[in-house]
Design a protein that fits this description.
Length: 233
């Protein structure tokens, strides 16, 4: 334990800093409700999907706030959290932008899939995933070992947020035309996959990160059929 945090060593990889709530023992249930976490599907038909592991995966486009929400949500459950892209960059020893430049997108996606497979073996974790993690079927299958939450926002809002975050431009490559046009292009391809993969959808257009974390917690812990467990919170 160091400064209220602990370091998690993923199988075959380096130790990665993960926030852990002080006083929450490994394997504890935090507020007591996460043990049997299940979530209503986004279709809203009232069915539940039991999960294999006590894991929560946040998916969505970059700029949706996945890293911040993951940290806050982990604190609520007394779990640890990891940013999958940060794990990947530490493993590769360079930024995602540089991986794309040096090795190409296919090599990046291979590493992304390998790391996701390792993360899926952990327990009591919230993960912020990369925006394109849903592109591969093997990744979507892996994500389904836990509860999958889509943080949804429009292209306009995502673009505004990304312009305010200089680290995004420094670390992330352009995958299309760049700017708003690129976001619109990629969202058209990815949104159907986000929707199909997610158990819970939370609109983060006008929602602060703390409110989003509260909404996710309510959706996961609430009995099926209650208002808090609606398909788009």
């Amino acid at each position: 334990m160091l400064d209220g945090c602990r370091y998690v060593r993923t199988p075959g990889g380096p130790a990665v800093r993960a926030v852990h709530r002080p006083g929450a023992a490994a394997g504890s249930d935090g507020d007591g409700g996460a043990q049997g976490a299940v979530a209503r599907t986004h279709q809203g038909r009232g069915r539940i999907r039991p999960v294999k592991r006590r894991l929560i995966f946040l998916i969505g486009y970059r700029g949706a706030g996945k890293t911040t929400v993951a940290r806050l949500l982990a604190e609520k459950f007394g779990w640890s959290w990891l940013d999958a892209d940060a794990v990947l960059e530490e493993r590769a020893g360079k930024s995602i932008r540089q991986i794309f430049a040096d090795d190409g997108e296919a090599a990046f996606r291979d590493l992304e899939s390998a790391i996701l497979g390792e993360l899926c073996t952990l327990e009591n974790h919230v993960f912020a995933t990369g925006g394109g993690v849903v592109l591969r079927e093997e990744n979507r299958v892996c994500l389904k070992q836990g509860v999958v939450v889509w943080l949804r926002a429009s292209a306009d809002v995502l673009w505004q947020r990304m312009q305010q975050d200089i680290t995004t431009a420094e670390r992330r490559p352009n995958l299309g035309q760049g700017g708003l046009a690129e976001i619109e292009e990629l969202l058209r391809a990815r949104e159907p996959l986000y929707e199909a993969c997610s158990d819970v959808t939370v609109d983060v257009e006008k929602r602060a990160a703390g409110d989003a974390a509260d909404a996710i917690r309510s959706a996961i812990l609430s009995p099926v059929g209650t208002a808090e467990n609606s398909p788009a919170l």
